[in-house]
Design brief:
The structure holds 2 protein chains of 2 kinds. Helices cover 75% and strands 0% of the residues of chain A. Chain A contains 14 helices and no strands. In chain A, helix 11 crosses helix 14. Chain A starts with a helix and ends with a helix. Chain B is 70% helix and 0% strand. In chain B, helix 3 crosses helix 15, helix 8 crosses helix 13 and helix 10 runs antiparallel to helix 13. The chains are: A mainly alpha, B mainly alpha.
């Protein structure tokens, strides 16, 4: 108390106030700088998507007359209108939606059950299973790439089921990648729901599994949505497997977008429009579950 | 912990429940689907990949992998042999990715921490700014790196425009071919990666009790001392996790190289994952590619073990 009283008068002296004002200015300047750096690629993408191809192709930083500009010289919506013409990005968009929704559903079906088991029961395999989830999460995709490719070839040979260049092949692949994180995340969501709730349901005549579906799932809806959206975004963004395991029929947007650049030409204007179309679903979904994703990341990777 | 009446209740409710009535079997039945999935898509492929790495599996033998000649450690010897052109390139790619990782992780962390400290201050519009800085992290890799590829173009790109307007360069530089490729990819990766560090570090900073900082200030601790002795202990665990995770992710980085540089990034920016993919799918040498990926995993196992130790999965499970 004594110290505080001593310190107090100096806080309002003109010199201190000047320093404080300068600090405020510096603070806002720093925030502004951060925002500019964050937003430049976004703004350049938006700007490019409204330019004519001609304007971008002929742009030249060495010639002041042709220097690239932030505001398009000729504003055009053609890039959006013709978005499916040179590169069939809308078809790839549909493929991505099918694959991502499929991954989301399969992944949720498996991880809800496993997450519930981990949150509610004690069993001998629990520790090793959690450990294996953490470990598989860390294996690099590259390790699986060649075996998957060959596995797909053999599954086709033995059973006739086509996995390469099909939706089911990608859905299986992505579900397996999203599964460990989903199980771990759902386990912590279920763990936040008091045990008394499903015990009560069981007293009222539900089986443990019945309690899961009738009582726990409705309560855990936000958590389930978050996990589902995580799986969706993960498969929407994946590049490595999509570039090797898809073909004409199933190519996803993440790799389809690269088709704008060929050996002959780079269609930057069309590419920027496509980039915006590809980003929008992710932006919307992420905004919906931002809080949960952040909580999940923080609790999942910071604990210790 | 179970409700004691459960067995009586379940006994009354049909066949399905009798199947799951045992307290012991139910959790196993619940994890079974996920477990079976994991076995099929994780365990079997890993074991198979190791098998393949001992064989000379190529485009001619892929139709029947058991007929592919067993070559023992030949693929591994080749991958780690400086005298072999493929081995040399592979080892060089490991060197490249180490350089890439050290730079991007360090700068990403420093920027992330600086911005986290900034966003921990009180200012007008803080919530909005906190959301906006996540934008690079949210943007899909394919989109982010495509835009950066556009930005780094020699004559069309704004990086050169910016540098020329500042008078730093006289002629436009070529960024995406040759010696500067790694630099361009690093810039884009740092832009994409720091918000994640910031996000976690900010969460760490927010766990610092305000009273503690005020006490320190009253006791005469300056800014550095407050950071070093009050905040740092709170963000140290986050820092450890962050760096280990980043080592794991960056060592296997593929997307930024593929999107910005195409299928062949060139010797200056060849990294293990792009190299393995080219060996397997362009040169159709699956055995060699598999051996190389096993080598990569072995290298990362050390980091993974440290990571698991840090996370202590056994103890952090329940809280």
């Amino acid at each position: 108390m004594n110290r505080q009283r001593k310190a107090y008068p100096s806080l309002s002296s003109p010199r201190v106030r000047a320093i404080r004002a300068a600090e405020r200015v510096a603070l806002y300047a720093a925030v502004l700088l951060v925002l500019v750096v964050v937003l430049i690629p976004y703004l350049w993408m938006v700007s490019g998507s409204f330019k004519t191809s001609l304007e971008i192709q002929s742009a030249d930083i060495t010639d002041p007359n042709l220097a690239p500009r932030w505001v398009p010289r000729t504003f055009t919506l053609d890039n959006y209108r013709n978005v499916n013409r040179t590169v069939r990005i809308l078809d790839y968009f549909r493929n991505s939606i099918i694959v991502s929704l499929g991954t989301m559903l399969l992944c949720l079906a498996l991880s809800v059950l496993a997450g519930y088991a981990l949150a509610r029961f004690e069993f001998r395999a629990k520790g090793p299973y959690v450990l294996s989830l953490l470990v598989t999460q860390m294996f690099p995709g590259i390790l699986f790439l060649i075996p998957y490719f060959i596995l797909f070839v053999y599954v086709n040979k033995w059973t006739g089921i086509q996995l390469k260049n099909t939706y089911q092949g990608l859905i299986l692949t992505y579900s397996s990648f999203a599964l460990p994180f989903s199980v771990l995340m759902l386990r912590s969501f279920f763990a936040t729901i008091p045990r008394e709730i499903d015990e009560q349901a069981q007293i009222d005549g539900c089986t443990p599994v019945g309690a899961l579906f009738r009582v726990i799932l409705p309560i855990a809806r936000p958590g389930i949505a978050a996990v589902g959206i995580y799986a969706f975004i993960m498969s929407w963004n994946e590049i490595l497997f999509a570039s090797l395991l898809t073909g004409r029929a199933t190519k996803t947007v993440a790799v389809g977008i690269l088709e704008y650049i060929t050996n002959q030409e780079a269609r930057w204007a069309g590419m920027m429009a496509a980039c915006i179309i590809v980003t929008i679903p992710v932006l919307v979904l992420f905004t919906l579950i931002q809080r949960h994703i952040v909580e999940g990341l923080v609790s999942g990777s910071v604990k210790g | 912990m179970e409700a004691p009446v459960r067995s009586r209740v379940t006994a009354a409710t049909g066949k399905a429940s009798r199947l799951v009535a045992g307290k012991r079997t139910l959790p196993y039945l619940l994890i079974a689907p996920a477990l079976v999935g994991t076995i099929f898509v994780h365990v079997i492929p890993i074991i198979w990949g190791i098998f393949i790495s001992f064989r000379d599996l190529d485009i001619y033998t892929i139709a029947n992998w058991r007929a592919a000649p067993f070559t023992g450690l030949a693929n591994y010897v080749k991958a780690l042999d400086f005298a072999d052109p493929d081995g040399l390139l592979f080892l060089r790619s490991v060197g490249n990715v180490t350089y890439y990782g050290v730079v991007t992780i360090t700068l990403g962390y420093v920027i992330g921490l600086a911005v986290a400290l900034l966003l921990n201050q009180r200012f007008f519009g803080r919530t909005l700014v906190r959301g906006l800085v996540l934008l690079p992290y949210i943007m899909p890799d394919s989109v982010a790196y495509s835009v950066w590829r556009f930005i780094f173009q020699a004559r069309v790109g704004i990086v050169n425009g910016f540098l020329m307007s500042l008078g730093i360069i006289k002629e436009p530089l070529v960024w995406l071919v040759g010696t500067r490729t790694m630099f361009a990819v690093m810039v884009a990766s740092i832009w994409k990666g720091w918000p994640f560090a910031s996000l976690l570090l900010l969460a760490g900073l927010q766990s610092v009790p305000r009273e503690l900082l005020e006490c320190a200030a009253i006791d005469g601790a300056n800014r550095w001392q407050r950071f070093r002795y009050v905040m740092w202990p709170h963000i140290l665990p986050v820092t450890k996790t962050l760096i280990l995770l980043n080592i794991l992710w960056n060592f296997n980085a593929y997307n930024q190289f593929k999107v910005m540089l195409g299928d062949d990034p060139g010797v200056y920016a060849e990294v293990p994952s792009t190299f393995v993919v080219r060996q397997a799918f362009d040169n159709l040498r699956y055995g060699l590619g598999a051996a190389m990926s096993v080598v990569l995993v072995l290298m990362m196992t050390v980091v993974a073990v440290i990571y698991l130790r840090t996370l202590k999965p056994g103890t952090s499970v329940e809280d």
